[in-house]
Every structure is written in structure tokens, then in C-alpha cells.
Design brief:
The complex is a heterodimer of chains A (218) and B (173). The longest helix of chain A is centred in the middle third of the chain and has 26 residues, at 94-119. Chain A has 218 residues and is mostly helical. Chain A has helices spanning 26-36, 68-82, 94-119, 125-137, 144-154, 160-173, 179-188, 192-209. In chain A, helix 4 (125-137) runs parallel beside helix 6 and helix 7 packs antiparallel against helix 8. The model of chain B has no long low-confidence stretch (mean pLDDT 96). In chain B, helix 1 (54-62) packs across helix 5 and helix 5 (133-145) crosses helix 6 (159-172). Chain B has a 6-stranded antiparallel sheet. Chain B is an alpha+beta fold and 173 residues long. The chains are: A mainly alpha (218), B alpha+beta (173).
Chain lengths: 218, 173
């Protein structure tokens, strides 16, 4: 899954802080350093692409202490198994069960590992798309902001299938905070069918903004 | 003109997506994943010309899976099947709405070339659409309220999904 080469700007992020990236993983750390080094004149959009990821979320008291090496190993095993699965809408899979359990068990540390795998294109588009759907569906307060951030980031994927997974995840998360990045994604979208689906999700989120509360996993 | 409905994954069927490696006029392989046969048969649902039973069929399909989800579907003219020389027979469905089960058919004695020409016909002629989870909840709530769906036959595993449904039902009353 490649990330689109699109311009971005420095704005106050809608979902996160202005702190350093907070990532222990050099791959993700380098990615964000690259993002932050883009000259101001190239910066135009406002969404997750512009946001520095803050890794300082407070872990749930139920999260297990995490060893980075073991987490990487476990995550890689989960994603490797997913490549052999055929996913069907509405049906649980070994991947959805394992990934959800991994996130609930290890919280932010798990998300850090997952973000690394997704952004570094270590998995195929089908699995990445499925990951976004699972992230949106999961109810887990500790990782809410991490998941929202990655879902917004998914709107920039070069793969239409992955972008679709991201909007489905956002539809489940149902948080009006995603309205701005979604509008930006609609403007960029070249595939008319996908743009229509994005507009459908936008309508849902704007409906929430006007009264219905978002899920926020609380 | 009545229609046939097949549940699919919409993102496998984008017509306007440019795949550099794909020769003009050819269909990529992934859409065939949505036309997986069992005993060389393929399940479809009969939708009336005015689509008045479409929501009811979708609600029933959505209640027959592990969790609340969006539903993607292809809707195509039923005459396409006879034009392609594909055989179709009425058969009983196995969904939580007994009436919907009567709107079920099987395409049968399907060969591999049959599946390919069907996929091309769907790609060229079908309306491909999506209902989001929030819309699905409403359809199922309506079906429960009107007694179309038997609640005990909803297959969702998550209590959270039922809680969302109950919240909507409470708001509707």
C-alpha cells in the first residue's frame, strides 16, 4: 500500500497534539521526520497527513506490558496469517479476532506496531483494507485516537481498496472530527464510485455533527 | 423489468479505476471472488421492478452474518441471465425473514466460462450500491418492528450490535 504523494500543510491537527512523534519504531519515526521536513509552500490540505503522531497515550490498566520485539513478532504473525484468508463483509475472521485481541491486550503499543506495518506497505491491499474496517469497528477507548488517526491517514492510500476500507472504518467510528479530512479526500478522489461512497459517509458524519453523538468508545 | 441481487464487495468492481497492467476491455480477477459457487450454483435474490422489496432483502442478508456491517450489492436485470444462456431455478433461501426466503433463486449448472460472462455482464450492466451500517440498522429495526424478521434468528455475535439496534428501536417508539 503506497501513500499518495499529495501536498499537505501545517495546521493545528484535528485529532492530535503537537508533540514529537513519540514512536519508538525508527521506521515510523523516520516517516514522520520526512513529513515534517516538507517546505511550507507545498502545504495545502488539512488532515491526518499533516498531523504529527503523538505516541504518549495512557495505556489502559488492563493492557499488558509490551516488549517491542515480541509485539512486532506477534503482529507480523497476525498479518502473515491474514494473507491466506478470504474476507467477507459482516463475517468474523481469524484476522479480525486476532487483531482486535492484540489491540485490546497491548493498547497503544499494539497500534504503534500496526501503524508501522500498514504505512510501510508490509501487507497487501486486501489485508490493509480489512485492517481499516476492523479498526473502525473495534470498541476500545485507549486506542481511539490512534485508530482515528490511522483511518484518516488511510484516506491518502494509493490503493482505492484501502481508501474504501478507511471510509468504512470511519463510518463505523462515526466521529464528526473526520469530516474535514473526508471532504479533502472527496476533492482528491478520482474514482467516481468511491467518491460517491465517501460522500455517503460524509452525509452520515454531518448528520452526527447536527445532533447525534459519535461513538468515541466511551 | 425485475432484478436479481447478488451480495458483493463493491471495491472489487470499480469501473473507473485504472489498472495499468490490465488490457483494455478485460475484467480483473478479483470480482470473481464475489461469484463463488457451491455445487456449481450461485445464490441470488429476486427484486421486484419497483424495488419495493429491496430493503427487506438487504435487512435479511445483514441479519444473517456475524456482526453489524455495511452491505454491498449488485442489482441487474433478470433477463441478463437468459440472454447469457444461464439456467435459473427458484429455491428456498435460508435467511431470518421467511418471505425473503421465497424471493431466492439459484443460478445452476454453471461452468467457469458462465461465471466469467456473468461477471462481465454485472460489471457492464449492474447497478452496484452500498448500504452503510447506520442504514442497515434502520432497515433491520424496521423489519423487526413490522414482524418481518424473527429477532431470535439474527446471527450477530456481539451484544454491542444488539444494543445499537435496541437503542434505535427505543428511539423509534
Amino acid at each position: 500500500m503506497a501513500i499518495r504523494e499529495t501536498p499537505f500543510e501545517r495546521h493545528t491537527p484535528p485529532t492530535d497534539s503537537n508533540a514529537d512523534t513519540g514512536f519508538d519504531n525508527p521506521l515510523v519515526e523516520n516517516f514522520f521526520k520526512k513529513v515534517q521536513s516538507v517546505p511550507h509552500y507545498q502545504l495545502q490540505d488539512i488532515d491526518a497527513r499533516t498531523i504529527k503522531y503523538y505516541g504518549g497515550s495512557v495505556e489502559s490498566s488492563t493492557s499488558k506490558p509490551a516488549d517491542a520485539g515480541l509485539l512486532d513478532k506477534q503482529a507480523n504473525s497476525i498479518f502473515a496469517g491474514a494473507k491466506e484468508e478470504i474476507f467477507e463483509d459482516g463475517m468474523e475472521s481469524n484476522f479480525s479476532r486476532n487483531l482486535s485481541e492484540f489491540i485490546v491486550s497491548f493498547g497503544h503499543s499494539a497500534m504503534e506496531t500496526i501503524i508501522s506495518i500498514i504505512l510501510s506497505e508490509q501487507t497487501n491491499n486486501e489485508v490493509a483494507s480489512e485492517t481499516y474496517r476492523i479498526l473502525g469497528r473495534l470498541t476500545h477507548k485507549t486506542t481511539y485516537r490512534d485508530r482515528l488517526w490511522l483511518l484518516e491517514r488511510g484516506l491518502y492510500s494509493a490503493s482505492a481498496r484501502v481508501r474504501d476500507g478507511a471510509i468504512l472504518g470511519l463510518a463505523f467510528l462515526n466521529d464528526p472530527i473526520a469530516i474535514a479530512p473526508l471532504k479533502s479526500a472527496i476533492e482528491r478522489e478520482q474514482i467516481s464510485e468511491l467518491r460517491h461512497d465517501m460522500e455517503q459517509v460524509l452525509t452520515q458524519l454531518e448528520g452526527n455533527k447536527n445532533g447525534v453523538s459519535a461513538k468515541k468508545d466511551s | 423489468m425485475a432484478f436479481l441481487l447478488r451480495k458483493i464487495r463493491k471495491n472489487r468492481w470499480y469501473k473507473t479505476e485504472q489498472l495499468d497492467w490490465l488490457p483494455d476491455g478485460e475484467l480483473p480477477a478479483d470480482p470473481l471472488s464475489d461469484l463463488g459457487t457451491k455445487s456449481n450454483e450461485l445464490s441470488v435474490y429476486n427484486v421486484s421492478a419497483d424495488e419495493s422489496n429491496l430493503g427487506r432483502i438487504i435487512a435479511s442478508l445483514a441479519a444473517n452474518v456475524d456482526q453489524l456491517s455495511h452491505v454491498d450489492f449488485a442489482l441487474f436485470d433478470e433477463n441478463v441471465i437468459s440472454e447469457l444462456g444461464i439456467k435459473i431455478k427458484k429455491s428456498k433461501g435460508d435467511l431470518p425473514d421467511e418471505q425473503v426466503n421465497n424471493w431466492h433463486s439459484d443460478l445452476y449448472e454453471l461452468s467457469a466460462p458462465n461465471i466469467l460472462i456473468l461477471a462481465k455482464a454485472i460489471n457492464d450492466k449492474a447497478r452496484i450500491d452500498r448500504k452503510l451500517p447506520a442504514q442497515i440498522l434502520k432497515l433491520i429495526a424496521d423489519a423487526l418492528t413490522s414482524g418481518q424478521i424473527d429477532r431470535t434468528r439474527i446471527k450477530w455475535k456481539s451484544q454491542e450490535d444488539f444494543e445499537k439496534l435496541d437503542k434505535l428501536l427505543a428511539n423509534n417508539t
